[in-house]
Amino acid sequence: MRANITLLAALGTAAAIQPAISQKGPQRPNIIYIMSDDHAYQAISAYGHQIGRIAPTPGIDRIASNGMRFTRCLVTNSISGPCRAVVLTGKYSHLNGFAKNEGQAPFDGSQQTFPKILQAAGYTTAIIGKWHLGSDPTGFDHWEVLPGQGHYYNPEFIDRNGRHTENGYVTELITDKSLKWISGAKASGKPFMLMMHHKAPHREWQPGPRELTLYKDVKFPEPATLFDDYSGRGRAAREQDMTISKTMRIEEDLKLYKDKGKMKNTGLNRMDAGQMEEWNKTYDPIIREFYESGLTGDELVRYKYQRYMQDYLACIAAVDKSVGQLLDYLRSNGLDKNTIVIYASDQGFYLGEHGWFDKRFMFEESYRTPLLIQWPGVVKAGSVNSDIVSNLDFAETILDMAGVSVPADMQGRSMVPVLKGKTPADWRKEHYYHYYEYPAVHSVKRHYGISTERYKLMHFYYDIDEWELYDLKTDPMEMKNVYNDPSYATVRKDLHERLEKLRVQFRDTDESLKSFLPAVK
Ligand code: CA
């Protein structure tokens, strides 16, 4: 595939507007990239996890049955803004300049991004929904985004004309706006690319008016590691601040408000009278029951986990409905045959594994993101792929899908051959990770590392200088650091060598860190 990319690059812009060789006929495909925020693969029924089975996602599962489901899509830096910057640029954080959510200069929109390249190649482009990169979007014919994290109820949107507030639930508003834009794009006759970015199911997991009661009486299975004591691992796992037991707030996170005045802390005061009435009808009895119960200790943790899941999964139900609605829309408007639909989250999320919520760590639940792609006539329906792919590959893949040459300075690789069921022999066997946001909310220490199919080596470098090694085959839940286990000496040496090679390959060496780190402080 690399040769093909080089060839296309050599042909320059003339090649850039040629149809992809894989396409039947001259028509270039439309591309819809749907991205939710903090959607764990454990919460998608197509992934077969116990949570997904109780809270099914039939809309998203349609993409899996129409196309390909990826079981090992890894992110390069498990946090919102940085993931979005990687998707746009196909470059690691230290090169696209956006390494952290907080204390970070806005995304430099003057740099090369895949939407800009598509635009130059004749595509109509748009982004609707969450943006979270500080600066105004560039490379889009149309953009309408949430300021910062955005709100669930009656949110503000920003577009070229400034800010305005809309009445409704954010997931439904983003869906309506997206369908309306697609309708206009179809009429233009040009191929289109839409980034449809949901805010949901981000904290504080506020369910929509139509899903308020969906899971309120459902009991979800607890993860085996809900009461993890972090023995067998280093300081990073012990010293984080993202546990359900200590970090998760009874009022703001679980909506068990003793003082309804606090609803303003999470934007719930934005609800109008009718929305508030429905909300209170659902939550008031839950609140009453909770404070009467006097739960403490492990029982309180168990209860918090259930409330967390009930709200989180209700938020996902609205996203899932949106996906179903979009697929129906494409079909009834004759767009389904020539439109690629991609579903991903910005990163993974902990649903109580290790006692946690949130993300950031290179442990599997937050390192892996769901990825499902349907591409009629190209991707075999119902296929499953376990190659190591990455959000670093998304820009390259989308350009390749559109038949546009991939710039040589992008650091990922087009997944198009993988999607065709022909993974190249030299496809990556290891993946490089780097997280920077510390000290910061949730106190996850800075680390970089390498993951192969079986092993993971992490270096919590700057703050504590500790190494950790995990064997995913013998220890899939990542409970035991075997870095100092003599029986892993050979594996450890091999991983160190491969990690150093990756750091050189991606230009993220100790030397470059010295100049980059002060810039992201
Ligand atoms: Ca996120």
Note the topology.
Blueprint lengths: L1 H10 L1 H4 L13 E7 L13 H5 L3 H9 L1 E3 L2 E2 L5 H10 L3 H4 L17 H7 L3 E7 L11 E5 L9 E4 L2 E4 L4 H19 L3 E6 L37 H5 L33 H21 L3 H36 L6 E7 L18 H4 L3 E4 L8 E3 L3 E2 L3 H8 L14 H4 L10 E6 L11 E6 L2 E6 L5 E6 L17 H17 L4 H11 L1
Parallel strand pairs: 1-8, 1-9, 2-11, 3-12, 4-5, 4-8
Antiparallel strand pairs: 2-10, 6-7, 9-10, 13-14, 14-15, 15-16
Helix pairs in contact: 4-11, 7-13, 8-11
Bound molecules: calcium ion.
Calcium ion (CA) binds next to loops.
Overview features:
16 strands; 4-stranded antiparallel sheet; Alkaline Phosphatase, subunit A; 521 residues; alpha/beta; Arylsulfatase, C-terminal domain; 8-stranded mixed sheet; binds calcium ion; globular; 3 domains; 16 helices
Q: What's the short version?
A:
The chain is α/β, with parallel strands linked by helices and 521 residues long. The chain has helices spanning 2-11, 13-16, 50-54, 58-66, 80-89, 93-96, 114-120, 170-188, 235-239, 273-293, 297-332, 364-367, 394-401, 416-419, 489-505, 510-520, and strands at 30-36, 68-70, 73-74, 124-130, 142-146, 156-159, 162-165, 192-197, 339-345, 371-374, 383-385, 389-390, 430-435, 447-452, 455-460, 466-471. It is globular, with a radius of gyration of 22 Å.
